[in-house]
């Protein structure tokens, strides 16, 4: 029953849709009972041991907010404790990316208001911030995951305005991802690990992304309404 | 630019397309079935199946639409292919050949992707259009008249192509709201355009100041309060118009960070009409 949750709007207004959108509504109809329980805010569990992003567009925005919190925290640490041998260009780039991610974080916090999940506590003990290779590898993972996460969750967004905002951010994340890849190995900005055989960026589900980032969080983030229930 | 143009153009040439689908429950069921299980790689075949179910057989309007999208992909692919075909034009020694070749390869894949869809319909993919990469509408004397003799101009036009491509895809995303397969693929192409834009800007910077000095141009669009274009190529100002926006979702972000940071953190959309009026449109002589 929980396996096909897809809170896309149903087919009530099909006549007004383009046929390709109409085609997408079919997938929503399959799971429309799953969307019936749509809440608004994130789920505040009684003992505060985990955070659930909630449902609907607010859930997706909280998902983005969680990822941006994580990215911002990472780059704040990178800039505060630069790795040995960092170049002038790398300092400039990593500071820029830090500024962008902090702004993305603050934007979502402001836009979500009282519906926002709380500030996340990170655990970066697995990352060696004094080592260039380790920092850039982690940065690549963060950026590539960000792009795949936005691309993979885009279809779940119900509001055209929110979809546009997500689109405005994901291309900037893609710019970051390509930049970091080029810092690691020039020319690797669209390698097969991220771009498929049709020249299309790979995408990832919410469950895949949250499972990957939770080891970096003290309080874990879940998405019961998007196929990633509390463990 | 392929997928979005397809949708726009189909609605133009066939406003009744929804009606064509509505009575055909079998077609609808068929479409639903590929929603989450079929890999994005199978999309050309899925699209072809949808069109066939809608029209019975391939018809001229649909093939025309797909060919129009293919025309635009040819435009981009042809640009890089031509640059690479000129002996010694793209420097072989440094990182240039690798960067330009990768971008060309991706654009050629997009062309192949569309050709597959058209062929699946029984249509004939169009040949590359007549183009004028100087932006001079076949006069060969546009603002970028040295595009294939001056490598710096070539990279500038390429960056404008990619930055504009990012904006074009973004502007069309709401038309695909809720469509898992098509929107996800389109967002995926959109992200690759972003990767290309970043890479070309990185390459331009490497020629300007090298890869370790303070960057002269960034992989993201850093606008001023009054001007979106940060490339220094005034002829491309229109392509960047609006990038200086500082308000997102009704929230004015200029109190949270500098103008440069606020504008670089968000890429702005363009409508299809806007795209065709700009640089990209001026390259196509006869579509």
From TrEMBL, chain A:
- Look up the domain of life of the source: Bacteria
Q: Which organism is it from?
A: Mucilaginibacter terrenus
Protein name (Swiss-Prot/TrEMBL): Ferritin-like domain-containing protein
Q: InterPro entries, alphabetically?
A: Ferritin-like_SF, TAT_signal
List the Pfam families: Ferritin_2
UniProtKB/TrEMBL annotation, chain B:
- What InterPro entries does the record point to? Ferritin-like, Ferritin-like_SF, Pigment-catalase-like
One of its Pfam families is Ferritin_2
UniProt name for this protein: Ferritin-like domain-containing protein
């Amino acid at each position: 029953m929980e396996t096909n949750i897809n809170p896309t709007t149903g087919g009530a207004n099909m006549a007004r849709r383009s046929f390709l959108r109409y085609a997408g509504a079919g997938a929503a109809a399959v799971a429309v009972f799953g969307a019936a329980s749509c809440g608004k805010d994130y789920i505040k569990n009684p003992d505060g041991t985990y955070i659930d992003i909630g449902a609907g567009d607010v859930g997706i925005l909280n998902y983005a907010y969680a990822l941006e919190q994580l990215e911002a925290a990472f780059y704040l640490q990178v800039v505060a404790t630069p790795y040995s041998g960092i170049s002038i260009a790398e300092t400039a780039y990593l500071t820029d990316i830090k500024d962008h991610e902090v702004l993305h974080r603050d934007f979502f916090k402001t836009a979500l208001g009282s519906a926002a999940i709380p500030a996340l506590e990170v655990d970066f003990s697995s990352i060696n911030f004094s080592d260039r290779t380790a920092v850039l590898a982690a940065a690549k993972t963060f950026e590539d995951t960000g792009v795949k996460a936005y691309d993979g969750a885009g279809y779940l967004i119900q509001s055209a305005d929110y979809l546009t905002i997500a689109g405005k951010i994901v291309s900037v994340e893609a710019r970051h991802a390509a930049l970091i890849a080029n810092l690691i190995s020039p020319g690797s900005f669209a390698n097969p690990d991220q771009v498929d055989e049709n020249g299309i960026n790979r995408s990832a589900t919410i469950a895949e992304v949250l499972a990957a980032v939770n080891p970096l969080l003290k309080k874990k983030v879940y998405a019961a309404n998007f196929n990633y229930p509390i463990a | 630019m392929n997928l979005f143009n397809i949708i726009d153009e189909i609605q133009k040439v066939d406003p009744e397309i929804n009606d064509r689908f509505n009575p055909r429950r079998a077609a609808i069921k068929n479409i639903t079935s590929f929603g989450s299980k079929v890999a994005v790689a199978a999309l050309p075949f899925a699209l072809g199946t949808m069109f066939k179910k809608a029209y019975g057989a391939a018809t001229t309007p649909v093939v025309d639409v797909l060919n129009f999208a293919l025309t635009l992909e040819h435009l981009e692919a042809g640009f890089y292919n031509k640059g690479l075909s000129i002996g010694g034009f793209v420097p072989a020694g440094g990182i240039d050949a690798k960067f330009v070749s990768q971008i060309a390869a991706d654009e050629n894949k997009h062309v192949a992707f569309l050709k597959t869809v058209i062929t699946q319909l029984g249509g004939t993919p169009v040949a590359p259009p007549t183009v004028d990469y100087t932006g001079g509408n076949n006069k060969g004397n546009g603002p970028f008249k040295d595009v294939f003799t001056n490598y710096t101009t070539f990279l500038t036009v390429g960056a404008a192509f990619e930055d504009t491509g990012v904006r074009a895809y973004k502007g069309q995303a709401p038309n695909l709201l809720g469509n898992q397969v098509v929107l996800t693929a389109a967002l995926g192409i959109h992200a690759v355009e972003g990767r290309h834009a970043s890479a070309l800007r990185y390459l331009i910077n490497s020629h300007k100041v090298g890869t370790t000095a303070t960057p002269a141009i960034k992989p993201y669009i850093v606008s001023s309060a009054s001007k979106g274009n940060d490339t220094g190529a005034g002829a491309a100002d229109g392509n960047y118009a609006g990038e200086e926006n500082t308000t997102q979702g009704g929230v004015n972000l200029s109190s949270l960070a500098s103008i440069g940071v606020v504008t670089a953190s968000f890429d702005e959309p363009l409508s299809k009409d806007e795209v065709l009026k700009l640089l990209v449109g001026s390259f196509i002589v006869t579509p």
